Amino acid sequence: DAKTTQPNSMESNEEEPVHLPCNHSTISGTDYIHWYRQLPSQGPEYVIHGLTSNVNNRMASLAIAEDRKSSTLILHRATLRDAAVYYCILKTSYDKVIFGPGTSLSVIP
Amino acid sequence: AAGVIQSPRHLIKEKRETATLKCYPIPRHDTVYWYQQGPGQDPQFLISFYEKMQSDKGSIPDRFSAQQFSDYHSELNMSSLELGDSALYFCASSSGIGVYNEQFFGPGTRLTVL
Fold first, then answer.
1. Which of A43, A98, B19, B98 ranks highest by number of CB atoms within 10 Å?
2. Region B92-114 average pLDDT
3. Interchain CB contact of A93 with B (< 8 Å)
4. CA distance B104 to chain A (A)
5. Given B42, B56, B102, which is nearest A100 (Cβ)?
6. Smallest Cα–Cα separation from B9: which of B67, B113, B81, B89?
7. How far is C-alpha A2 from the chain's CA centre?
8. Which pLDDT value is given to residue B43?
């Protein structure tokens, strides 16, 4: 599976926007970009996914670079509940999700 | 909304014993995935089933086996347990398989091997 790189950790103040970057320079044309997050002591949770166009849902927005070599997950107003490990994943196969190191997001009250 | 159900939530076993973990997918989901998450590690894919057939296999030890039943629930059987098998085991389900399909994860089973 193609590789992604993310910062190990990030901090954000509560109620401010958060931009979580992800680099995936070896992405192929058919790879989907997925984001999952894992809150402490819980199972991973799907956040959003996209292919080429920017995507919005009730949880977040996904901004995909024109060359698709990078993407950014945007949380519009961070809450304490958003403190989690965020995983950027390239889904190359129809099946499994391959989790990488992810970004540990801390939200400061 | 109904979520993925895993049982038991906690399990304590001795070395060399066997364990069976159960997963009940979201209704009408036909695909089940198993993941293992060791302490301080990221989840690792073990195995998956689509329509009761194994669809993919990851780093699952030979001591482990799994199957998906006619009602789509799945069981992960673990034999000759070792201390290193102590981990959180997550089950996820999805409707069909595809690169765009999202997976819904259960709360996990925490296995402790003493």
1. A43
2. 90
3. yes
4. 7
5. B42
6. B89
7. 15
8. 92
| Structural tokens at position B22 | 């159960």
- Do B100 and A32 count as a contact with CB atoms less than 8 A apart? yes
Collapsing DSSP to helix, strand or coil, A21 comes out as strand
Give the one of A31, A38, A97 whose C-beta lies nearest to B45's C-beta. Answer: A97
Q: DSSP string covering A48-75, please?
A: EEESSS-EE-SS-EEEE-TTSSEEEEEE
A27-57 pLDDT tens trace: 888 889 999 999 988 999 999 999 999 999 9
Inter-chain Cβ pairs, chain A and chain B, closer than 8 A: 62
Tell me the C-alpha distance between B42 and A27, whole Å.
Answer: 21
pLDDT, tens only, A6-21: 999 999 999 999 999 9
Residue A2 pLDDT grade (very low, low, confident, very high; cuts 50, 70, 90): low
Which of the residues B57, B99, B105 would you substitute to probe the A interface, choosing the one with the greatest number of A C-beta atoms within 10 Å? B99
The DSSP element (H or E) to which A78 belongs, if any, is none
Q: How far apart are the first and last CA of chain A?
A: 37
